[in-house]
Amino acid sequence: MAASGPDELLGALYREHGDALLRYVRHLTRDAGHVEDVVQEAMVRAWQRPTVLVREPDAARAWLFTVARNLVVDDARSARNRREHHTDQSVDRIEADRTDAVLDRIVVADALASLSSEHRRVVVDAYWLGHTVPEIARRHDIPEGTVKSRLHYGLRALRLALQERGVTR
Is 145 exposed, middle or buried (0-12, 13-18, 19+ CB in 10 A)? Predict the structure, then answer.
């Protein structure tokens, strides 16, 4: 390993010990994706400390294998490794977070509950069930003008109830 600079030293080091280091790390981790990361990190650390390897060329292999083993052990002990589980299966589908929609429904349901039953009935019939004013009037056996009036005052009360719950425009 008679090389002049750190880059040449790293190239010579990899040519001399790279294959054996890959096999060693593969044996330790049994995770093909992680093997190359560990070997690369060991080589980066060797590149950062070329004086250690130049002073003791015979110890370079032992140093690389020790660094690789320590990297594997550190990763195994890490919090990431305890919480994450690798799988070869792809995710079937990704669903959007529905938390905001659920919270909105809870707030609206609570605000609707604060309305009088007459106002709540016409608001739900019109805006959630999609019925027209004449349909609502027939369903509840009330005049169309009363439906319009209850819709107007029901929506006004609903707007106030939502504002009291922190919903703003």
Answer: exposed
Query: For the chain, which ranges sit under pLDDT 70?
Result: 1-6, 50, 52-58, 79-88, 91-92, 169
pLDDT at 139: 93
Please report the domains of the chain, with CATH numbers, ordered by start residue.
6-83 (1.10.1740), 110-164 (1.10.10.10)
CA 117 – CA 121 distance, rounded (Å): 6
Among 117, 95, 28, CA closest to 68: 28
* CA 58 to chain CA centroid, nearest Å: 46
How far is it, in rounded angstroms, from Cα 90 to Cα 94? 11
Lookup result for tokens 């995770």: 31
* Cβ contacts of 18 within 8 Å, gap of 6 or more: 39, 43
